[in-house]
Write a structure and sequence with these properties.
This protein has 252 residues and is an alpha+beta fold. It has helices spanning 2-26, 32-59, 66-92, 132-138, 151-163, 224-238, and strands at 100-102, 145-148, 168-174, 179-185, 192-201, 206-215, 249-250. Strands 1, 2, 3, 4, 5, 6 and 7 form a seven-stranded mixed sheet that branches. α2 crosses α3 (66-92). The chain starts with a helix and ends with a strand.
């Protein structure tokens, strides 16, 4: 049965492409986005394997077509093993069509060190005001963090805690301007997201922490930049005891 064979081979191809994309990106054999594209092609073939497999199972019922039924089932199972986790991740995270999140959309923190880094997708770092209403609609609770303490003291906390976060590399540290900049590297595909943190005065003995986080590739970040800001703000409020083990590296 042709459909059963196609489902079987498409399932195998999906597994191979997904594995190849992850391995290539994770170990630097290809740029992260290229590895992710290979991964997505594997997801596409997984979808085809599921459809062909279901059709194949319907058309190979009966003892005389048992071998075709088995191949169709294997193709369907392989497709589901690939597609189900990916669909689950997408459903758990909102696919908001922006990848640049900031606590201050009117006067967002500006990147400096990131301007020297090459983006494989060629995206610029200038903030687009058109995304501000999209952010407000999807992340209405996102606000800057106000803390008791002078900008000097709060910035010291920011500097220490940011330097202890695994997968964060600090690329610029400017205590005089109370600004810190770095790169966050994702665990699986090794995507690089740029972030910048500013501490601004807010009256007497109070400070406001502003943060911006932007992905170098893609249209949607599946909430990664928003989560990065809110999780760091929680760390600032709760203290270093909530920090996971590991340390970021400081680039010269």
């Amino acid at each position: 049965m042709v459909l059963a064979w196609l489902a079987f081979y498409d399932g195998l191809l999906a597994v191979a492409l997904v594995a190849a994309g992850i391995v290539a990106a994770h170990f630097g054999l290809t740029p992260p986005f290229k590895g992710f594209q290979i991964f997505l092609i594997g997801f596409f073939f997984a979808g085809i394997a599921i459809v062909l497999g279901l059709l194949g199972m319907l058309l190979t019922r009966g003892e005389d077509r048992r071998s075709g039924q088995i191949r169709a089932r294997i193709g369907t199972i392989l497709g589901l093993l690939i597609a189900a986790p990916i669909i689950g991740v997408v459903l758990r995270h909102r696919a908001v069509p922006i990848n640049d999140i900031t606590t201050d959309t009117q006067n967002p923190p500006q990147f400096v060190a990131a301007l020297k880094q090459r983006s494989e997708c060629g995206e610029g770092l200038a903030y687009d005001p058109k995304i501000a209403p999209i952010q407000a609609q999807n992340y209405p609770a996102l606000q800057p963090l106000t803390l008791d303490g002078t900008p000097d003291n709060i910035y010291k906390r920011v500097e220490i805690l940011a330097g202890e976060i695994p997968n964060w590399t600090i690329t610029r540290n400017d205590p005089a301007a109370h600004e810190l900049e770095g790169v966050a590297t994702s665990a699986l595909f090794k995507f690089h997201d740029d972030f910048v943190i500013q501490v601004r005065p807010d009256g007497t003995n109070r400070s406001v922490v502003q943060m911006r986080s932007k992905s170098r590739c893609g249209v949607s970040d599946l909430g990664a930049n928003y989560d990065r800001i809110t999780s760091f703000f929680r760390i600032l409020k709760t203290g270093p005891r909530m920090m996971p083990p590991g340390a970021a590296q400081v680039q010269p």
